[in-house]
Amino acid sequence: MSSLKQIIRPLLHARAATELLAGGGGGGLGCSHAGSWTWTRHMSMASMKNWDPAQFKPRKAVILTKVSRYEYEKIQNEKMSERQLEEMLTKRGSDYTMIRYHHNVHKALEQEVVHGLEGAGMEVKVVKRYQYNDEVVKWADLIVTTGGDGTFLMGSSKILNRNKPILGINTDPTRSEGHLCLPKHYSFNIQEAIDAIFRGKFKWFFRRRLRVTLIGLKEKINEAPVELHDQQLQYPEYRYMDLMTENADAGDHPFKEPIARENTAQQHTRILPVFGLNEIYIGESLSSRVSYLELQIDKEPAFKTRNSGLCIATGTGSTSWTFNINKLTHHAVESLLKIIYETTKYSLNWKDPKLVEAITQKFNNQLVFDPEADVMCYTLRDAISVGTFPTAKENRPRGTAKRMIVKSKCFDACLVIDGSLSFKFNDGAKAIIDILEEDALRTFQLYSEL
């Protein structure tokens, strides 16, 4: 394994080798969770939080490993010889040599994880995405992911028991940050990470997650979700029509589904069998169509809004999509400083790069918060004002909450969890989003060598 380290270590940024504590951010695409779910609690919150790391002695581990680009292409083109595959990828503009190289790096690190866990006396199962199911999760004492943030998100999606820990190993450290995984340092020192865990040299890190409760007709809220790459627009021929208004009734357009009013049909409740680790998105499937939503933030009065979708994120997801929605660029800050100077005549060098950098960084840093915080942040993308320009009396397009209630007034909308698992969320559908301690994901934060 020393030769592997010699090959890929120089490719890392120098600071990566000094990272010794697990990061707080998250990113990448998630994966689905299907199947039935029975809600259970196994012990009190206090006892779970105070579970002594020194007492953690897992015996069975499941390693969820990613499908590398090379493996994917081999599956998609199984009848091709290696030479034919290389020629096809080259014609498509891909670097076959680098695809094979990164595949080999991934598999070598995967095998090092397997050998390290087996060396610690554990029974180990290695599974791919299509083999990862509830039965496998139930069997394991520990879930380990080898890949990047996307693999970690998929691994966490099936963990509904706060007592089941998950450990992420970044097996593509030269190209992926892997915020949800252990720092890159451990990608080249896997045995060090395993030893630290079995010696109790770590602390539990509980990443808060979003719980979604759907309310509506039984057949509607129990519809099976789809993966985004499989999803198609329900009415693509109407992509340029915006036929719905806030006061629309059933029958406004030929494809609108009749809405069951509360006094005419029994409403059912369903807690979705997957939690959001990064974020939840609610809005029209077609990005060019306006999303109509009714929101209630905590105990504040409900209000209606037109926008390009609602993004609700955890502290883990605060460095991901919601950060990029809200971040300020240096150009925007420079423009604001110039306007302040022209308006107030205050002695201000709006072209000073150090000043622009300091303000930009301070604003953007405030968008990021602790993954263990029991609060969610929300953002209404491109919120539409009543007039052309916004006023001070309008509802703020972003903020924080502990509970949100969202009612859909949309046409062909979806509720998407962690960028992948999509549930229908059309006119009349209602969702309650909570962030609860009992739903947190148990992860590791390793101590540095003393």
Question: Which SSEs are present, and which pair or pack?
Answer:
Layout: H1 2-8, H2 45-49, E1 60-65, H3 69-76, H4 82-91, H5 96-119, E2 123-127, H6 134-139, E3 142-147, H7 149-157, E4 166-170, H8 190-198, E5 202-207, E6 210-216, H9 218-221, E7 226-227, E8 268-271, E9 279-284, E10 291-297, E11 303-307, E12 310-313, H10 321-326, H11 330-344, H12 353-365, E13 376-380, E14 398-401, E15 403-408, E16 413-417, E17 421-424, E18 430-435, E19 441-446
Parallel strand pairs: 1-2, 1-3, 3-4
Antiparallel strand pairs: 5-19, 6-8, 6-18, 7-17, 9-12, 9-16, 10-11, 10-15, 12-13, 13-14, 15-18, 16-17
Q: Would you give an account of this structure?
A:
This protein has 450 residues and is of the alpha+beta class. The protein folds into 2 domains: 2-200, no CATH class; 210-327 and 367-439, Probable inorganic polyphosphate/atp-NAD kinase, domain 2 (Tumour Suppressor Smad4). It contains 12 helices and 19 strands. The strands form 4 sheets. It has a 7-stranded antiparallel β-sheet. It starts with a helix and ends with a strand. Residues 1-48 and 230-256 have low confidence and may be disordered.
State the main characteristics.
450 residues; alpha+beta; Tumour Suppressor Smad4; 2 domains; seven-stranded antiparallel beta sheet; six-stranded antiparallel beta sheet; 12 helices; 26% helix; 22% strand; globular; disordered N terminus; NADP; mitochondrion; ATP binding
